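Changelog excerpt

This revision adds worked examples to the README so contributors can see how folded entries look when concatenated. The first example is reproduced verbatim below.
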Amino acid sequence: MTNTRRTILLTLLALLSIFGKGQTPLVDSLEKSIYRAAGEDQKLAAIIALCNEYKSLHRDTLDLYAYLAHDLAQKSANSRLKDQAELVLAYDYLRWGWRDSVLATVNPLIKESKLKDPADRDLYFKASRLKAMTYATHGDYKESLAILYQIVSLAETHKDNLTLAENFNSLASVALARGLPAEAFTWLTRAMSLAASDPAIDAAIYVNMGEACHQSGKTDSANYYIGKGISLFRQTGILSNLALALQRQSNILIDAHQLDQAEAALKEMVDIRKQLGDGDMIQDENLSLINFYIQTGQVEKAIKFCTTLLKSGDLRTADPASGGTTYANSINIRLGYFEALAKCYKLTGQTDLYRQTLEEIIVAKDSSYQFNSARAIAELQTKYEVQRKENTIIQQQLDITRKNNRFNILIGIAFFIAVISILLFTGYRKREKIRLTAMLEKKKNEAEENERKRIAADLHDNLGAHAASIVSNLDLIELSTAGLSTSTAMQELRNNSLAIVSQLNDTIWALKKDALSLTTLSDRIKIFIQRIQYSYPSVNIGVNEEIEDDVMLSPSHALHLFRIVQEAINNALRHSKAQEIVVGISSREHQWEISITDNGTGIQPQTHTGNGLANMRERADKSGWKIFWLRREPTGTIVQIRS
């Protein structure tokens, strides 16, 4: 589109928005929304929404907006908007009666990929139905039915009830065009059951129901249904369909000899067609007007009108003075006009022209039969019914498969629940067992703790008291009068008594506590070193602490660790001839280590057979610790205990 053309279109649109008014309130509202659109895609979507009301737009207005939508779509990256713009252009071609252009535009839109995509499925069905109705409008019922049957079959597969209702009604329209009201009733009944109170679809169904009743000779029912259809079309504002309904109402009224009312309906129909820019109208409406002329005695006027309508030629080369005449090139359209003209010639007694027109009718019918063979259409209907039954069987098989799958899923769920229940029950029993064990362990620990405290109390009150009494009594004995051997024995007895008291104090210290920290243990080791330091004045004994995380120990573990350290210090003092002993205590990240390092002569733990080392190993093993005896360079021994 050139910049000049785009500028002209935009100018026209601006003028329309200022001075013009839509054919209906909905059209007027949609037209205004175009000028409120912010971006190009939003404007394109607004134009498409307006053009979708093509049955209520003036033909020139539709043409203007359809081409503008087409041009805007070329610049858009939105593929759905592009497709919708093409469909809008097809609507425009339909209003001008350009069958080939409609077909060329919708065919690319009818792709299997669009049917499979739920977002584009509506576009597929709309384009397909437009193609079918284009064929039907030009009397090619065979092609139209083939497409409609396919749409119905696919819509049934996808359970699209509104599409089914719309296309069942379209099948009824084709049946009525072929003069088969009984078949039309069948389709309309099915359409009514699926319309879901959509006013536009309901209105179309009522109008077709009225025509079916009219063709069946049921004038009262025809008037009832056509009246309901017209009322709904007035509400929805679908002007083109309202004009068609008024044309059918006029036919019913003419047959009922209510000519004044028929004339009023025809006049309103003509006014609507002029409002829409469809001055030449469509075949059914033209035939209604011809029939009205005949009924009111204006036969010559009917003959002149028929002769005008039977013009054929190429619209593109038509004389502009013709006023936009639509030529009747289709055999099926011409046939209706020939039959009306023959009726007029017969009424006026023009025998030669009547005979000549009958010959034209025979030729037209022969040509029409080639397009719309009753056998071919019957085959299409049979094919549809077979396909429908096959679809029903497939649907039943699918339902059975779904039920089986549901059953299998339920079995699987039941099995899963059973497995989970067993696992939960097993876990519950395990947790209960652990809880019971923990409870028993707790009671055991409480019992042990009570027993430990009782033993500590007994040791303190009984053995401790007796040992302290022995030491005290020994201090009262006068050793100066005793002999040397007696003094030595008494001194040894005193030392042993003091050792017993010391050991009892250490044991009671450990047993009285619920838990002991590494720092507390370090303090006890320092007290022990102070107690023995007087007996070894030549040996320097020290403690190095690097406690970052103060680890808690049970009383038994604390006592075992204290005894191991105590034994290691005593061994160094008795056997190593060391001048220096260092106790190192470290703890970080909940891991502790105690080392006893001396600078003595060193020992060979693998060849030592004393009970002291064995006791140290046994205490470490019971507590789950590691103990090592390492050689210190240049001389000495390192004893390491690690958690």
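The second example, added in the same revision:
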Amino acid sequence: MKKSYLVLLCFSVALQAETIRSIKFEGLLHLSPTIAKEMVGLHPGEELNLAKIDEAIKRFYAQGYFKDIWVEEQDGTIIFHFVEKPLIAGIEVVGYLEDKKDELDEILGIKKGDIFDERIVAKAKERIKQKARSQGYFDTVVEIDTQKVGKNGVKLTFIVNKGEKITIEKLLLCGAKVFDKDDIEDVVANRERDPYLGWMIGFDSGEVKLDQLPLDSARIHNLYLSKGYLDAKVSDPFLRVDFDNYKAKLRYHIFEGKPYKVADVEVKLLEPVVDPKRLKEELTLVAGKVFNIQKMRKDIEKLRRLIADKGYAFVRIVPDFQKDEKQHKVKLRYIINPGEKVYIRDVIISGNQRTLDRVIRREVYLAPGDTYSYTDLIESKNALKRTGFFSDVKIEERRVSANELDLLVKVKEMPTGNIMIGGGYSSYEGFLLNASINDKNIFGSGIEGRFQIDYSSKSLRFNLGLVNPRIFDSDYSLGVNLYNTKFEYYDYTQERKGGSLSVGHRFTRHLSGSLRYAYEKNKLSDVKFDNIYFQEGTYTKSAFIPALIFDNTDDYYIPRRGVVLSASAEYAGVGGNEKYTKVYMRGAYYYGLEDLIDYDLILRAKARIGYIVDQGKLPVFEKFYLGGMRTLRGYQTASLAPKDSEGRLIGGKQMFSTSLEASIPLMKNSNMRLTFFVDYGGIGEDSYTTITRAGTGAAIEWFSPMGPIQLIFAKALNDKPGDRTASFEFSVGTRF
């Protein structure tokens, strides 16, 4: 700014009585002349004022765009000259973080195209050091190389030596008697190095996590509070480092005290919006129990939800403690201030580049003018995730007045379609070719379409389907499916042609029903044996299939909460010559433990059961078969069923299968998980347990850009001679 002030001083005397005829701007790139005119504060026709020019220059400098500004006057024309700061034409990191290219913008706080500013670059340098410290690296050195690019560009190169890691060789817990070291290390981020297995992934390496160190004292204190030790005190961590070998001792001083029991719990409402007795019935921390801070927090959330569901979005709940230090008892009182009833002013949707606003809005259960409801908010988020269109959904509340708020629905879209062309080889079928086009969200409309064709010397499969889950954004659905399959088995050839039309209706948020009509022709030919179960000819199926499904899960692909229950009954015999009734039910329960153990472990329990009544003609291909990833892993698909006297599978009329699964993150940044499972199932002609088998193993679940992929490694547990086992299977595009 020195140059601009010098110019002003040189001609200030001449300008004292000068009238401004016009104003010009030279060298502007980031600011338009129109905005500059609004900012300058000077107007043609008025007398020139040196103080106003000074203020104008300061305003321009405050924008952060300019390296230099000076002013000159020519016959009443005031000319502002600008020299803008260069732009960042490129950013490169050499050494530490060079493999984190996708995360650099967030880590550095600057990106390509930003204005070069030495202060901002210095902050980026410090952010690199902070990142290194958060991962346990100390004495990190960052050098910055700037290289001019073109007329007004600069390339930045950060050369980073990440320094050394400090290892905790000893964790000292002075005064700890109630909990041992293992108990405390379960809740803290900084742990003592395992002397034998610290080098192995999954075991305590002892590396210091500096960003977590200030929080560990609170975590230890919280552990004591969860067992009723209200007088417990935990010192700040003391880390003593030997910088010759970067080994450290970490010490805490702990005063434990004695545990407290709950003497009484009171709920005090400042406004009678809900019956206090109703609120008190929901509490889990009650008189006579040992005080537990975790249970208290959950009780507060229960109370908050019950009040917020009445429209009081800004409810405040303050727990008040009255300790009896002699008796070691505590009286707990929840003071609840509901505030004013809150209404939705607007619902603002963002982040959707492809999905239409109306497709998102129809899954949000709150609309402008509605009374606020916390339950509706949570269920809206879950409904959006159940669509399978989004990898992440956030609904934020923005308060706009004492009794109004806006809902900010922020979605992160994910690929919902894929085009796949592939091939393979089978010892029986020879070379296989396949192609498919699938999309759950065609043109962002919410309509699902699929086309698939497979070809080999022994088979030809064709499938075409289209489903609109919300016709005209209503609660009704409509779907159509056409298929044609031909397969030459070892002993016969089957041709299947058919289609189906379905109409559905959503009765509640979680319960929907459908009615599907299916018409299908099956032709068996080239049968190489005489058997009552495999007779040449054409089988015609005309069937109505009513179904119900309940789904309150919180995500489409990887649910962590909720239940899926479905039931269907297929009535074949409405025309055609196949006559039977097939009842099929399926259930799945999902429970995530992250809130309890601070680790993303998901438990899953799944079950299927089927029953068929033969009403005159039940073809063998309509019966049940066990085996494969959908029923019983460890055995080949559809390889378990009753057999005829020649050992050929003839299917069963009764079937069940169950699965218990535990899923953990494998590569979180890549949405990859590892799942361990145990399957058990049975099948028979007149009994569910004529044939029973079990399998176990592990599966890699990858939420890839092509869609969900499963790689299954299984082992049959109680296989019998003649069973067809399978140790590996994979699938693409199925719900886990």
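Reviewer comment on example two: The first helix runs from residue 2 to 11. The radius of gyration is 35 Å.
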